[in-house]
Amino acid sequence: MAAGGVSPGGPLGAYVPGTSLLHRCPPGPKLLGLLVALTLAIRWPEYVAVPAVALFALARVPPRMALAQLRPLWLFLAVAFGFQVLAAGLGTAIEVVGGILLAVALASLVTLTTRVSAMLDALVVAARPLRRLGIDPDRVALLFALAIRSIPLITEIVRNVREAQCARGAGNNPIALAIPTMIRTLRAADALGEALIARGIDD
Amino acid sequence: MTDRSSSLRLTATDLARIAVFAALIAALGLAGTLYPLGGQVPITAQTLGVMLAGAILGAYGGALSVITFTVLVAAGLPLLSGGRGGLHWVIAAPTSGYLIGWSFGAFVIGWLAWRFRPWRRSAAAGMALFLLINLIGGVGVVYAIGIPVHIWRVDSGTLAVIQAIGSFLPGDLLKAVVASVVAYQVHRAIPGLAGGSNE
């Protein structure tokens, strides 16, 4: 696989490098912990809020990075808050919006403290028992790697098609953009498939 | 995909198509923002990719490519429209149900498309059939999973419906139309897509 160009919003995604206990914890136990925390947060949000903030402090995630994960939700939460204040009162509005924020914050903490590669490796390991169902974990890993490698390739196709159609004055016609994109994407898939066959992936 | 009855074993061609379509869904979230209504409402083409994955790759290939995309997002890659990524968007957000619904939507679109083969019909009838299939899978199935989760998280059916109609429905209807035309044309242009037995 060629290196580089994997992800757009920074090479690490949302991951914030660090050496805290949460950073060093393997993804498996962290995911189990999250499951427990989310279950508790749904049942007793008022008791989970303070420990959740303490976990962020423990992970030493800068508040700016933590808030950046919640930013796309702000408009959504503002509408939900306003609606609930009018429909059911301030108490319910705080409960509902607080509950959503808590769940999202807890789950984002796993992403903020776990490398993408570590998470994918953990998933491939977790897929091992599926071998009995005919699912090969090595193929799962290969699939992830191929998909990540294809993102810059397909992004380039989408951009090229848009530029070509803009030059023809069809830059905002979704159909004029989508058909050539699909054809070129399928051609890219065929080329990738042939490359895999040439390397003996088909047996 | 090639042979769905015998086993889940994927050929190299299947693997490549699934990977590339997962990448296409990601690329459409990054670069595919359209402004079709006079620049008023930005519509990201991400769910267009989901519908096309089912319509072009079939039930299993389509669902697997959407699942692959979802796993990459859950692992932390910022591939959702607006550069969002991470486990919280997949399992903890009020809109997570829609995202989980995408995989099922792609599966249903693929299943219905291979069952009724719209590409065998005339252009108007084929595109209309594809539109119906895309609406059932890409809107019906996705919302059937997304809206109950949404209602649960915001604790109000009215609010969930207002937010879904306000933010998702217009774009999804438009994308269903686009996906229908594109899926029909692509199947006509590349006859071997449906396992070679379609003509």
Tell me how many strands of chain A there are. 0
Assess the beta-strand content of chain A as a share of residues.
under 5%
What gyration radius of chain B follows from the Cα positions, in whole Å? 16 Å
Low-pLDDT ranges of chain A: 1-11
Order of helices and strands of chain B: HHHHHHH
| Oligomeric organization of the protein chains | heterodimer
Biggest pleated-sheet summary of chain A: none
Rg calculated over all Cα atoms of chain A: 22 Å
Please give the share of residues in helix of chain A: over 70%
Q: pLDDT average of chain B, as an integer?
A: 88
Structure description:
The complex is a heterodimer of chains A (203) and B (199). Chain A is mainly α. In chain A, helix 2 runs antiparallel to helix 6. Chain A is built from 9 helices and no strands. The longest helix of chain A is centred in the last third of the chain and has 31 residues. Helix content of chain A is 74%, strand content 0%. Chain A has 2 domains: 106 residues, no CATH class; 63 residues, no CATH class. Chain B is built from 7 helices and no strands. Chain B has a single domain, classed as Arp2/3 complex 21 kDa subunit ARPC3, CATH 1.10.1760. Chain B starts with 11 loop residues before the first helix and ends in a 10-residue tail after the last helix. Helices cover 70% and strands 0% of the residues of chain B. With 199 residues, chain B is an all-alpha fold. Chain B is globular and about 45 Å long. Chains A and B meet through helix 5, helix 6, helix 7, helix 8 and helix 9 of A and helix 1, helix 2, helix 3, helix 6 and helix 7 of B.
